Amino acid sequence: MAMRFYSQKIAKIVTVLVLAVLFSLLLVEKTDLTTSDLGRHIKNGEIILTGSFSEKWGVLTTNFYSYIQAKQGFVNHHWGSGVVFFILQKLFGFAGLSIIYLFLFLATAGLFFYFTKKESDWFWAGALSLIFLPLITYRGEVRPEIFTYLFSGVFYVLLWHWHKGKIGHKKLLVLPIILLFWVNFHIGFVFGLFLIGAFGIDQLVKYKRKKPNGFRQLSVIGGLSAAALIINPNFVKGLLYPFNIFREYGYAIVENQSILDVHRLNFNSGIPLGAFYFVLAVLILSFVLLLIRSPGKISLANAIIAFAFAVLAIFGVRNFTVFALFALPISAINFKQGFSFPVHKAYKYLVLMIGGIIILVGMVFIYKGIKQKFNGSGFGLALETEKSLEFLRQNKIEGPIFNNYDVGGYLIYGGYDVFVDNRPEAYSVSFFEDTYVPMQQEEAKWEQVDKQYNFNAIFFSHRDFTPWAQDFLIARVKDNNWAPVYADDYNIIFLKKNTKNIGIIQEYYIPPENFQVVPY
């Protein structure tokens, strides 16, 4: 008996360790600072902690870094994350920041796993985790949304335990306190209100007689939570921002595309669509099974949450991770309850078959994920990502700089004012439609805008594979008014041929014949 106990304990420890190792291998990747948002987040934190009042206010409420739309209103909904990232990067460097981010993500995933294990069992928690890991770790770059994953997990666990009568409603008073931070760390704070609402509907529909005070108690918590969300630099505007952000969103980016758009545009490189479809199928199967076996055990709150996050994931691939995190406990609870009472022997074989298929397919997706990330895995920055910034600084290259969308955050990190950066919501729709894209497509428009702003340099990611960007780069290489002086694996720099730049051009000029067009 004792031997069996220790064997089970060892098996559980091994399961956790294996999952943690696989999670880490799938998650860790070096940061490509040239196209990442991280540089801008760090600069936000630096200014908020060390800048003047006007600079702080500019970062929080305006398009502070742009020299062409600096007065454009902007709701900075992630400034708190920037402060955290800046402090950690200052103390421990980029490698240390990556390691701390890994442990924070591990703690978040561990919270969901522990809850899943407690509410189902080791078998379902372990088996399902394998297939969910590639989706959970899909967005492994250091991002503010880690706080949404963590806070969402805390909300869900507390609300579930209250819902089951394991804790009193007074312990839910911590939720508005969490939202005080959440609303200033990431736009995903709206999920907190949604989770409260999902359990509130459950109380109202199913448990009014059984727990008559439940809905009223949760309504009070919801009211306090909504009040807490107003405590942000943009007040009510900040509270409502999740519902307004896409009203002025003039530039399409991959992470905001629906699954149908990803297929239509044939841009599915690095997006784990296969893993998503399988996880979605497992989630649906768990509800169908429970509906057949014991429909009265279906949690209305879980059904609402599962449906909402599935829809979000279908209409925006950036939501794959939060969908997978919630699908894990919900699927496991459904499977466990579907087989929680004496069943025919055939059902036991069905359980083993379902679990076996999940484990097998999960390992296939995990292998693909690790293989895909292998070359870029590790901590800190990708190789030589800071070299192009060093070139600007060492040669004291002045602006105005025309840059493309992808590298805006990188230049902001370097302390430069930008033409545009990777925040579509910070710029007007007309800017993208009437200026940014046309000036890369039409030579006359380029000359008009160049004359207006008198660009001294062009800083561009040659990995921008939009048709207009590639046409623009080809045109600039052939343009006698501009000289390419720097190129690496990430970026290319052109200088205008003028007296200010003549010395740098003479030293670093790259002949046009050194460039070639490579099909994407």
Automatic annotation (TrEMBL):
Keywords, comma-separated and alphabetical: Membrane, Transmembrane, Transmembrane helix
Ranges that cross the membrane: 91-115, 122-140, 146-162, 174-201, 271-292, 304-326, 346-367
Iron found in the keyword field: no
Domain of life: Bacteria
Protein known as: Glycosyltransferase RgtA/B/C/D-like domain-containing protein
Organism expressing this protein natively: Candidatus Doudnabacteria bacterium CG10_big_fil_rev_8_21_14_0_10_42_18
Lineage of origin: Bacteria, Candidatus Doudnaibacteriota
